[in-house]
Amino acid sequence: MDFLDRVWTLLEYLILGLVQGITEPIPISSSGHLVIFRELFGIETTGLSFEIFVNFASLLAILVIYRKDIIRLIKNGVLYTLKKEEEAKSDFRFIVYLVIATIPVGVTGVLFGDAIGDLLSKPVVVGYTLLITAAALWIIRNLRGRKNDGDLTTKDAIIVGLAQTVALTPGISRSGSTIVASMLVGMKQETALRFSFLLYIPVSLGTAILDLPDMFASDEFQAMLVPNLIAFITAFLASYFALRWFMDIMAKGNLKYFSYYCVVVGILVIIFL
């Protein structure tokens, strides 16, 4: 590989890291956009392992942003488990609902995750699924729920968990599907956002624990270590700032613009890719 090829490879991975980082927190499907950019630029990576790797970077950014909520939940979860402190009960139940909502995607991902990725990671499929994401975002664009963290139910958790399972399909946004479901069951925007991104943590962490050790040990990963690290760092920084921006968008109730975006990109992908 000559100098120009190396530079181009680094640029390709930087682009993929940027795409992953920006699109993971916002409801426009990171997996779908990776499929699109790979097709546009003819980029080849280490497949699903690469997606898991850059997803882990996005996970770290989410952990940083929600660190206070995570520390509080862990502290109160332990406190309620050991001492049944009433003031910790709400946070304990919130943890239970996160666990319940994680089960559907965990089971489906283990049984069918690879098959779904192989069958549906095609640009034309992404085009149509982006239109589905657009329609879902349009439906909730004006919703203002009333449920806070302490008002959630088991039924709410199951519905949101099933919505996250649908997002295994490239082009269906994970954050979008869980936020849509959360708001449809009546959560406030802030609660929906927090539940969606805290729900991302066990799924992403579990996938990383299962798959990343084999990826790190592979000769293919070692050979592309520098490009992969560039993608990882870029994805982390982009995810951090994209989520901060998205939190502000949610507070202002401007989800309709993401719906417009998904319609435009979905139609362009269907026509040209």
Global structural class: mainly alpha
What is the total tally of β strands? 0
**Coarse shape:** globular
What's the helix count?
Answer: 12
Strand residue percentage: under 5%
Determine the fraction of residues in helical runs and give it as a percent range. Answer: over 70%
Integer average pLDDT? 89
Overall number of structural domains:
1
| Main sheet attributes: strand count, strand direction, barrel closure | none
**Uncertain spans:** none
Q: Give the SSE order as H and E letters.
A: HHHHHHHHHHHH
Distance between the termini: 29 Å
Supply Rg: 19 Å
What is the structure about, briefly put?
It is built from twelve helices and no strands. The protein has 273 residues and is mainly alpha-helical.
Description:
The chain has 273 residues and is mostly helical. It has one domain (3-272). The chain has 12 helices and no strands. It has helices at residues 3-23, 30-41, 48-65, 67-83, 89-120, 123-139, 154-166, 174-184, 189-217, 219-223, 225-252, 256-272. Helix 4 crosses helix 5 (89-120). The longest helix is centred in the middle third of the chain and has 32 residues, at 89-120. The radius of gyration is 19 Å and the shape is globular. 40% of the residues are buried. The model has no long low-confidence stretch (mean pLDDT 89). It catalyses: di-trans,octa-cis-undecaprenyl diphosphate + H2O = di-trans,octa-cis-undecaprenyl phosphate + phosphate + H(+). It is found in: Cell membrane. It comes from Oceanobacillus halophilus. One of its GO terms (molecular function) is undecaprenyl-diphosphatase activity. Its EC number is 3.6.1.27.
